[in-house]
Every structure is written in structure tokens, then in C-alpha cells.
Amino acid sequence: MTGVPLRKRVSVKTLLLVLLCGWLFAALLGVLLQFGLDGQSASVGDALLERNAETASANAVTSVVVSYRGFDTLGEVTVLFLAATGIGLLFGGRRPADGGILGASGTPPNEMVVTGVRLLFPILILLGVYVVLHGHLSPGGGFQGGVIIATAFFLRMLADPAFRLEHGRIGLLESLSGSGFVLMGLLGLTLVGTATFLGNFLPHPVAEMGRLLSAGVIPIIYSLVGVKVGAEVAAIFGDMLERDARQSADPPVEASDA
Amino acid sequence: MTALLALLLFAWMIAGAWIAISQDDLLQSVVGLSLVSLGAVGQFFLFQAPDVALTEAAIGVAASSFVLLMGVRQFGRYEDKELK
């Protein structure tokens, strides 16, 4: 159509890249379509479900997350910790010289926000604690309950600018619960006969299944996970809000340029 | 019945995603993303994954929306026309 020759209209590098991507896609599709057909990988979930009664945890997902795959959970919590650390470095790095962030945000919070948060805060805390403590009985657990508690504190920080989370105290809480998690794992390693990390060393009779005090070490570990996740997510929210408040306190430099 | 509900939720999620893309008002875009997550909560619950549904409700609907809202508060509410 145009006078430009074909080799100028089609870049060879792009064409090669597209071909490579297509070949990779086809190869991976060939692998993925075979996956699970041999019955080997499909039976893992069924095997865990069959053995679920031995953990005496009514919620089978929890017994996988905390007991059978507890080490993975430790890794996930560590990833979250690293994310919170990175966000803290990014957002809380430069403190203003006067150190004054109190009352920094210009406009006071809306009356409806204040009233609504006053109503919601205790309910959210109660819901979060319930979700954490009933992790081995009903859906939910440490991660979900921890995030719910952190959300409650975030709303509180929005409604009340004078309310601040003390970073030192949050860090202490977070590290104590993290160390408690590892300590539980090591105790399981030493006390249980099979010597497994995070082994269930407390008595967990199957007859008690479904009660609040059952499943041995699982509710303790999930509570520690809940405290740790709540502290980390609340620290992330706190970092972002403080940075936000500090920026709005600064004189708008960009606005004068425009 | 389950299939019908699932289709409804799919429509809900697509509508939320469309709101998130098409709105100039970034506050409403965040609400649209939150609606997508809310539809995902319904889907997870419908297909018997209540644990994942609870996680999605706590993180997808609440926490990630909060993070995005703080971004909106810092960078202004309306989309820059020159970027379009």
C-alpha cells in the first residue's frame, strides 16, 4: 500500500520476540495441560482432608495453613514484614526538622466520619478478635482478623488526627509475636516425637473438636499470626497517613510554579 | 441457581471494572475497584471458599482501597486530561 518496503515496516526484533513468546506460551501450555492428569498432585488435597481429624481442628483450611504448611505461613508473614519495612523506609525516612506532625492535616475530619468511626471502632475490634480466636473453628484466622483490626485502627487514625500509633510499641508487639511463632515451631520440633517444625505438642483430643479450646497449639499460633499481621498492616497504614499529613502541612511548592 | 448468581456477580465485577477505567473522578475509580473486589468476595463464597472470601473482603475491599484512597488524597482527585 505504502512505498515503505516490508523489512522497514516490520521490525525483525519485535517479530522474533513475538515468536519467542508464542513458543514459550505453547510450551508452557503443553506442560500445564498435562498437570494433574496423572492423579498424583490431585490427591494431595484429598489426603490432607482425610487426615484432618488428627489435628482436631474443625476448619480443614486452618489445619493446612497452620499445621501441615505452617512453615509456609511463617514465610508469608516474613514477606509481609519485609513489605512493611520497605514501606516504612520509603515513607518514614525523612522526618521534618521540627518533628511536628501533630495536628498537621489542615482540615478537621468530617463530623459524619467521626461519629461513624466512634460507632464502628469497637465492633470492628470485636469482629477481628473473634475471627482470630475462631480461626480453627470457622472460616477466617490470623491473617483476616489481623487486617480487620488494623483497618479499625486506620479508621480511628482518620477520625482523630491526634491519635497516633507509637512505632516503638508496634515494633515490639510485632517482633514479640514473630519470635513467639518461631518459638512454638521450635518447641514442636523438640517436644513432638516425630520432630516436626510446628508440631502440635499440646494435647489435642479429637473428641474436643469444635470447641474453642481445642486443636492444641493451632489457636495459639493463629493468635500470634493475627497480632503480627495486625501490627504490620497498621504500621503500613500509619506510615502512609503520617507522610500524608506531613505533605499537606508543607506549603504547596508546586502550586506556586504553575 | 448457583450458576445464575455467578453470572450476576461476573456482570457486577465487569461493571465495577468499567467504572474504574472510564471515570475521570479517581475517587469513583477506587470505588469501582472496590466493587470488583466485592464481586470476587461473592464468587469465592459461592464456590465454597469462605476463607479466601474473608481474606478478599479484608484486603481487597478494605485495605487496598484505603491505600489507593490515600494516593488519591495526595495526587489530586481528577485525572489529568493531558495524560489521556
TrEMBL record, chain A:
Keywords from the UniProt entry: Cell membrane, Membrane, Transmembrane, Transmembrane helix
Membrane topology field: Multi-pass membrane protein
InterPro entries: CPA3_antiporter_subunitB, MnhB, MrpA_C/MbhE
One of the Pfam families matching this protein, by short name: MnhB
Highest taxon, organism lineage: Bacteria
MrpA C-terminal/MbhE domain ranges (all copies): 14-99
Compartment list: Cell membrane
UniProt KW Membrane keyword: yes
Domain Na+/H+ antiporter MnhB subunit-related protein: 113-233
GO-annotated cellular components: plasma membrane
Transmembrane segments: 12-35, 73-91, 112-133, 139-159, 180-201, 213-237
Similarity comment: family membership: Belongs to the CPA3 antiporters (TC 2.A.63) subunit B family.
PANTHER family on file: NA(+)/H(+) ANTIPORTER SUBUNIT B (PTHR33932), NA(+)_H(+) ANTIPORTER SUBUNIT B (PTHR33932:SF4)
Official protein name in the record: Na+/H+ antiporter MnhB subunit-related protein
Source organism per UniProt: Imhoffiella purpurea
From TrEMBL, chain B:
Keywords, alphabetical: Cell membrane, Membrane, Transmembrane, Transmembrane helix
Lineage top rank: taxon: Bacteria
Topology term for the membrane: Multi-pass membrane protein
A Pfam family assignment: MbhD
Subcellular location: Cell membrane
Species whose genome carries this gene: Imhoffiella purpurea
Keyword Hydrolase included in the entry's annotation: no
Chain ranges passing through the membrane: 52-72
Main location: membrane
Domain MrpA C-terminal/MbhD residues, every copy: 12-76
InterPro entries: MrpA_C/MbhD
GO CC annotation, single: plasma membrane
Identification of the protein by name: MrpA C-terminal/MbhD domain-containing protein
